[in-house]
Inverse folding.
């Protein structure tokens, strides 16, 4: 769908690395250019018309995000530089203050590094414990296994909505219910889900959420942290400076501005916010449910075609996300990626920053495809054809 | 060298299991070499006696280039003195970087003389050579 909107797709490439980042539609680029050409001023500063336009667009984007994820208040939306930044903010500006020694956080082996390492640092520095929810035989999280992992000391569960290696979709709503019955807070990493399926923080009852604009057709360097107002209000700013203070005096007194402005010190990433705004409009215009259906159908087609090739191993047949992890049997993933690149087919080879999962599943490296709505059956047919000829791989890459 | 011949030497060494194994023996130095892009991951097992590389083995998971060049390196450097080995590694490096080098010293490793055409694979071609050099330098 909508391929004509993506300049990159006119370059004869087949882009399947949508898990790493998505391509950008013209609308996003145009919105950013429009900012620099027509109302290029700072935010929250000006007493003149073009600066007011910046303020208006900036705050409207917050409102748009609020609606997109169905938060209750605009003020629950904080702009960050991306998922990694959002999770670090959640961990360091809320949990560092609210957890104590021996409190436990539950994660899994298949989390992205950005949802593991910040917790490890709290473990080292304040003595919390990082525990793992056991994954089932398809490397998925079951409610039962969450239940088993909960102890009296469990204070947080922090999970990806959809994981980046396996592409399994976690039952977030049920996990939230279980968590809240046990006075546990739920952090959700929506990096891999935000562009592919509806994320509704109210319906799912999510306490903290993180995502990146660049994985939902927006620019790099901008992302979102959502927190329920009552939690956000208790968070400690990590940066102090302009824009976030209401008053300060020479004897060191500081009064902070309201939530969420107090978390956005300094000149923000204005072009990023404007680009994100255009990306959300773009996705809304197609409709996330329509995107989901299209991607699921296409993924099904890809899996069917791959299953006809006996030299291909697929690792996540049961996963409900839009990703497929595979290898050509006995060929190292990176060699496959180099081979496919000869045909301008872009896929990702690697361990996808989920190093502890690899220890568990004993497959270190896979080729990963994440389907976007701009991918087509024809592209999959091309991929399958190239894979069919992969007995020539060494002639092509050596 | 003809491209077909190069390719078959690379593949023969890729398949060759002679020096490809994990070693428990603690008289070997174990050196882990990883690509920063975190995908190639090879353990080298180095046994040094009397300033000589008495044995060199490896195991791990890596692409065709890293695996094959490591197999070649093991054959080439086994039995060499530390000094000779360092000299060969330096010549190999020069070849990869398109500088002057002594072709005779490198034997089969000459098959990688045009890897510079694929800059993204230079790392693969030098990963374990640099790992070994790091260990040998400790003896100098
Ligand atoms: C599940 C998951 N979480 C977090 C991230 C980190 O996102 P970013 O690099 O945009 O901060 C990624 C990116 O690949 C991801 O897939």
């Amino acid at each position: 769908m909508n391929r004509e909107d993506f300049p990159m797709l006119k370059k004869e490439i087949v882009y399947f690395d949508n898990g790493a980042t998505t391509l950008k539609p013209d609308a996003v680029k145009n919105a950013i250019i429009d900012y620099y050409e027509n109302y290029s001023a700072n935010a929250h500063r000006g007493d003149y018309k073009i600066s007011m336009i910046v303020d208006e667009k900036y705050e409207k984007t917050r409102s748009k995000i609020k609606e997109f994820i169905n938060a209750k208040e605009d003020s629950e939306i904080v702009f960050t530089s991306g998922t990694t930044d959002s999770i670090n903010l959640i961990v360091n500006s809320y949990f560092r203050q609210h957890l104590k020694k021996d409190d436990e956080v539950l994660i899994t082996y298949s989390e992205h590094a950005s949802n593991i390492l910040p917790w490890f640092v709290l473990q080292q520095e304040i003595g919390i414990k990082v525990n793992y929810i056991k994954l089932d035989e398809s490397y998925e999280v079951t409610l039962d296994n969450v239940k088993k992992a909960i102890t009296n000391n469990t204070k947080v569960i922090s999970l990806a909505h959809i994981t980046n290696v396996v592409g399994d979709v976690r039952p977030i709503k049920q996990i939230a219910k279980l968590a809240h019955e046990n006075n546990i807070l739920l952090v959700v990493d929506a990096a891999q889900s935000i562009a592919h399926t509806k994320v509704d923080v109210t319906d799912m009852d999510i306490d903290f959420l993180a995502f990146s604009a660049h994985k939902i057709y927006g620019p790099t360097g901008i992302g979102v942290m959502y927190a329920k107002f009552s939690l956000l209000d208790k968070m400690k700013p990590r940066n102090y400076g302009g824009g976030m203070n209401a008053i300060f005096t020479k004897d060191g007194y500081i009064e902070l501005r309201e939530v969420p402005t107090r978390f956005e010190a300094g000149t923000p990433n204005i072009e990023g916010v404007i680009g994100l705004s255009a990306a959300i409009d773009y996705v809304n215009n197609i409709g996330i449910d329509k995107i989901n259906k299209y991607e699921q159908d296409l993924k099904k087609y890809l899996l069917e075609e791959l299953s006809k090739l006996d030299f291909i191993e697929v690792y996540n047949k049961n996963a409900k996300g839009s990703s497929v992890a595979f290898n050509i049997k006995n060929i190292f993933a990176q060699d496959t990626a180099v081979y496919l690149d000869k045909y301008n087919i872009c896929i990702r080879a690697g361990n996808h920053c989920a190093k502890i999962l690899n220890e568990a599943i004993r497959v270190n490296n896979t080729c990963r495809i994440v389907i976007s709505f701009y991918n087509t059956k024809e592209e999959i047919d091309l991929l399958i054809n190239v894979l069919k000829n992969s007995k020539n791989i060494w002639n092509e890459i050596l | 060298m003809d491209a077909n011949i190069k390719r078959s030497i690379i593949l023969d060494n890729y398949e060759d299991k002679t020096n490809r194994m994990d070693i428990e023996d603690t008289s070997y130095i174990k050196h882990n070499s990883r690509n920063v892009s975190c995908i190639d991951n090879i353990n080298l097992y180095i046994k040094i006696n009397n300033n000589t590389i008495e044995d060199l083995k490896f195991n791990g998971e890596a692409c065709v280039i890293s695996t094959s060049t490591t197999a070649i390196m093991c054959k080439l450097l086994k039995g060499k003195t530390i000094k000779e080995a360092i000299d060969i590694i330096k010549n190999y490096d020069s070849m990869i970087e398109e500088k002057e080098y002594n072709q005779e010293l490198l034997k089969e490793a000459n098959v990688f003389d045009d890897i510079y055409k694929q800059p993204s694979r230079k790392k693969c071609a030098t990963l374990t050579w640099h790992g070994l050099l790091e260990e040998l330098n400790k003896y100098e």
